[in-house]
TrEMBL record, chains A, B:
Segments forming a coiled coil: none
Site (Cleavage): 192-193
Annotated site (Involved in the stabilization of negative charge on the oxyanion by the formation of the oxyanion hole): 120-121
Major place of residence: cytoplasm
Protein role: Catalyzes two activities which are involved in the cyclic version of arginine biosynthesis: the synthesis of N-acetylglutamate from glutamate and acetyl-CoA as the acetyl donor, and of ornithine by transacetylation between N(2)-acetylornithine and glutamate.
Name used for this protein in its record: Arginine biosynthesis bifunctional protein ArgJ
Active site positions: 193
Gene3D superfamilies reported for this sequence: ArgJ beta chain, C-terminal domain (3.10.20.340), L-amino peptidase D-ALA esterase/amidase (3.60.70.12)
Protein's UniProt keywords contain Cytoplasm: yes
EC number: 2.3.1.35, 2.3.1.1
Binding site for substrate: 156, 182, 193, 280, 403, 408
Length: 408, 408
């Protein structure tokens, strides 16, 4: 991994073991590198699964297959290939995925449809079947490894491994939630070259798991953007092994269901923030909060217009309180807005209200806020109760260096 | 002006005088600079006018007023302020515009509503009335100046002045069309911090003029993007002085109307291309052509998704034939597309067809194309007859330098 992002947490967090989840990694050598790049997570029989996937129409075979597989609600294994996304590789790419599914299913004695495969990396090069076969073979029999090693193995351009954990009381049981994620570019709703995996030992029916993942994703992975680009491979999977021994949760009204959801949501949000903190070239973590919109959906579209604006992102990179660019971004969103009711703030400092710079505007505290690593931008539209928060990073020379020098 | 864009034309073109159009410039000193920054164009009595304006909801008073004024169809004067956009300045900004309108109308003996005012520059600082009054006063009595001096005076971050001309035979008359434009950032449909002015000596009824401008804009100024950001001030105005003496054109079926439209369209397209050639930090001029879409509108949305993708733009900056990023951009557009029918080309070289890299793909001619200054990207969706072409530039370190160092 290259130089650690200045926005990274101090260290990889302590993640609990999740009963029924065993992680192994191996070297498939999908690229010319000497690192583990193939991850195998074995899941206990009875594990339920839910997934959300990229809305990119040109999605990979992995995504096409995964979308079908989650309908079954059962998962026994996860395979993640790093270094080759296998996207836009037609039937050859699909054959490689099906080969992996069959190979792992044969080993575990399960259905191929219970083996989830994800791939991340260059588009347009069919995943080499021989490397995949040998890599899977090695992974199936490797020693179990740590969460951190697993998080490192699924990464590509990431500068630090990303993990998060939470717990909740369900019935008499303490249940655990642990998650890992990779992704640092091509991050935008909905999903991005982002692969995220959350595991819990709770027992949860597939329909409720889907409901929880969908809601948790909306305010986390689908509320972040790095460069407005959306990958062909993005996937978030949520697995529940049921090993905690709680009575199976089937609805949000079941005792403990809300606590479990809160834990899942906390992990999803933390992981999503870490993705932004590793945005390509990022030097600032930016929270954009829009209030006073005509609806929450409208607020989110305005917030994303601000978060995706190259001019806003470069101004923040330059520590410039250029609120005019925020006004511009609000206005271009195509959502209801009234210039003469609009208010803009950086941090807690309002710089413009009612369509005018505030009287006696003092730039000093605003400039001080912008020198920090954590920037907050607020826009109040003054129209209604709609609100939304999204997160992004600034746009720097680092982004250009990473992406103009990247070779396909 | 800073270092001339490597994509600029060799020189400012020879533009004909347009009977009934007199240009003057002066120093209002809206910024701390010693250059002309206020333009006054006097138009002969009887001049008709049409305009298109930014769709940014947070538009400037100039845009609000201009949108109303064009309904009258008559124009006697144009004032352009450079260095201060006067946007998001509430009633104070509006008062400054109304002051200018009254001042010029008093001088010419016309209605204030026939005086069009545009401003470009920093957002959120009310246009200083004293500087505006003195600047207008100086401009009203200045010596007439060249097209090139006028094009330079309306510019802000532009690295070269932009002009274009064409002519047409209407009836027995040779009519002339000349245009100037400014703009190098915040350029995206619809409009951008782009101010464009096209003048003709033809006699054209306002309704037909509106029709021609609307159609010409769609395929030119509204088919370019630099950074996907859309300014609060963008305006294109088309003035017809009627001094050529042709019978007034009132419909597209009138003899000569098509010839005039072709000339206006040619000027608009040339000016739009020049705006892209001066895109902030641009090192490549990029044409994106989408064919085989389900409709022309769908094709345009896909083309803009490609043209606005930071990952596509950085890949081209890096001369990298990363067609996977083009696939990604097609897929994220939210338009009908079928991964397995999609074909991608750079220049005339197809690199992928039917969802797979082409057999025997030879990167050499593609790499050679990408080393040039003029890049063509094509995507055929294989679904229908919809097609569209848009133009953009690459995303480079220059863009970051210009926009992260810009001070509000």
């Amino acid at each position: 991994m290259t130089t650690r992002s200045p926005l990274a947490p101090a260290a990889f967090p302590a993640l609990p073991d999740i009963a029924g989840v065993t992680r192994r990694v191996a070297r498939a050598r999908y690229k010319e590198w000497d690192r583990c790049d193939l991850t195998f997570v074995e899941l206990a029989p009875g594990t339920t699964v839910a997934g959300v996937f990229t809305r990119n129409v040109c999605c990979s075979s992995e995504v096409e297959l995964g979308r079908e597989q989650v309908k079954g609600g059962k998962g026994r294994a996860l395979i993640v290939n790093a270094g080759n996304s296998n996207a836009f590789t037609g039937y050859r790419g699909r054959e490689a995925v099906e080969q992996i599914m069959a190979q792992v299913a044969g080993h575990l004695g399960c259905e191929p449809s219970e083996v989830f495969v994800c791939s991340t990396g260059v588009i347009g090069v069919p995943l080499p079947k021989d490397k995949a076969r040998a890599g899977v073979e090695a992974a199936l029999t490797a020693e179990p490894c740590s969460w951190e090693a697993t998080a490192e193995t699924i990464g590509t351009t990431d500068t630090f491994p990303k993990g998060s954990a939470a717990s909740a009381i369900v019935g008499d049981q303490t249940i655990h939630v642990a998650g890992i994620v990779k992704g640092s570019g091509m991050i935008a709703p909905d999903m991005a070259t982002m692969l995220g995996y959350i595991f819990t030992d709770a027992a949860v029916a597939p329909a409720l798991l889907r409901d929880m993942l969908s809601e948790a994703t909306s305010g986390s992975f689908n509320s972040i953007t790095v460069d407005s680009d959306t990958s062909t491979s993005d996937t978030v999977l949520l697995f529940a092994t049921g090993q905690a021994g709680n009575a199976v949760l089937t609805t949000r009204d079941d005792p403990g269901a809300d606590a479990l959801y809160a834990a899942i949501r906390a992990v999803a949000l933390d992981l999503a923030h870490q993705v932004v903190r590793d945005g390509e070239g990022a030097s600032k973590f930016i929270e954009v909060q829009v209030t006073g919109a005509t609806s929450d959906d409208s607020a989110k579209r305005v917030a994303l217009a601000i978060a995706n604006s190259p001019l806003v992102k470069t101004a923040i990179a330059g520590e410039d309180a250029n609120w005019g660019r925020v006004v511009m971004a609000v206005g271009k969103a195509g959502e209801p807005a009234d210039r003469d009711r609009l208010a803009i703030r950086f941090g807690d400092h309002w710089v413009a209200k009612d369509g005018l710079p505030v009287d006696g505007y003092d730039e000093a505290p605003v400039a001080a806020h912008l020198k920090g690593l954590e920037i907050r931008v607020g826009a109040d539209l003054g129209l209604g109760d709609g609100r939304a928060t999204v997160w992004t990073c600034d746009l720097t020379h680092g982004y250009i260096s990473i992406n103009a020098d990247y070779r396909s």
